[in-house]
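Record type: ASSEMBLY
Status: queued
Input:
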Amino acid sequence: MLRLLLYRVLGLVVILVLVSLISFSITYVVPGDVALVIAGPGASQASIEKIRSDLLLDEPFLTRYGTWLGSVVRGDLGVSAITRQPVAEIVGFRLVNTMKLALAGIVLAIVVGIALGLVAALYRNSLVDYGAMLVSVLGISAPVFWVGLMLIYLFSVRLRWLPITDQGGIAHLILPSITIGMYSVAVIARVTRFNLLEVLGRDYIRTAKAKGSSTARVSLKHALKNALIPVVTVIGLQFGYLMGGAVLTETVFAYPGIGRLFADVVFTRDFPVMQILMLLLAAIFAVTNFLVDISYALLDPRIRHA
Amino acid sequence: MTGRRFWKALRRNKAALVGFVIFTLFLICAVFAPALAPANPNRANFSMVLHPPGAVALLGADELGRDILSRILFGARASFLVAASTTAIAAVLGVLLGLLAGYYGGLVDAIIMRAADLLLAFPSFLVALVIVGILGPGLMNVILAVGVLFVPRFVRLMRASVLSVRENEYIEAMAALGSRTPRILFQHVMPNAMAPIIALTAIVSGEAILIGSGLGFLGLGAQPPLAEWGAMLSEGRVYLTTAPHVAAFPGLAIMGLVVALNLIGDGVRDALDVRL
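Status: finished
Output:
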């Protein structure tokens, strides 16, 4: 277990370093002069020179990367190229908002997804099963931004049950978290059903039934526990997906999170903010996958002792 | 598995058949859009602004009075273009790189697989967003971005297939008999590894449409006045309270086509009995 842990930590560090390299390098692949791009058309020579020296654009690559990574590690995230506001200030509260949204979405996905998958598997080839699988195919196929708009229309415009945009408070989180979690609900339902059916066909389930355990006990205690191991991986992957889905969901709901910020800085070409956001999102994604790997080993003794 | 058994298994799958029928209908819409569309998709008609669905215009009209049905029919072309080109880019590059990685192993394998891991280290929509952000908005750049995004999926799948096929004795025998590597790779390893690639292609093309229309929704895809479902939805967003049909129908179109592709993908996957 310790060896596995060390190996995974090492892998995480390597990925983080490479990710920081990629995030930093995006200014190099932009066609044209970055300083000109950021300053915009009609900027004075002085302001272009200012940007050039602020971003160390004339220094060699490794010097710039080293300086950038050094200050990021020390907690100095730099300033926005557009508003001159500190990046930490811009990102901070938005990150908290997106985390709230993503957590609400993933909790919804886990609860509803596993429940759907469970009933579908238990009542295999019944109307319940077909219904659950139809819902999940629709959930995987519907564009998030469209689902968000239709939910707003139904619950805020027509029924007037819920507020349209974010003003704080739990009611404002309901529609965005359904929107962002919907795809994950569908994926988790499918994976749960698939794995549960596979486990239910195994010999030890037959043995448990032969010993006289009730069907419900067998499905819940023996089968579900084993079927959920692969589901854990999917949950980890879904968390990364939620971070990506946050861009569209937050745009639809005018929700002040890092997803919408990301779309904004792509438009304004605010590279200092974009670099930090890329690094941050990839780091969250990598750490989540790392935790999933570890929990996978904890859940499955075959991996722990391998 | 033989081809005939595969088709038999696929035909028995009702969901896949439904998917195939929906897919074909959309394909007909895309190909024959000029003949089927009741109006010019780009002609503004100010007497029809935000007209609700009905007898005059089956799916209503948008904020410029353009016929929404006609725009959806023409928009199908953009979606098929995105789906087909991105999966073509991803499949060709992914299959080639996966073949190399799986067959040669060692350093080649390590470099290709770590590069694939790195691309998968970022949430996929964000990768597409950054690439389009750097290249600039437009349908071609969306295709490039989404195509690159899906390469690692094909690389991984192909590499795994190659690794399992390579173990067969006949491959070893061919090498012993002096067959050159490219011949072994393309004539023997590749056809054997093709089946799962086909299933992945169907599933990935649905995702490509979702990501492509998402970028269109953000204003980074097809530029006006070209009809594209994601962009149409984004234009309709402003009129959600008074004219919800402007945003509703393009979204239904996206969902319909993606459902079809997912049903086909699931069917092919089950018929081939592979896990993706």
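Annotation: The mean pLDDT of chain B is 88.
Annotation: Chain B has eleven helices and no strands.
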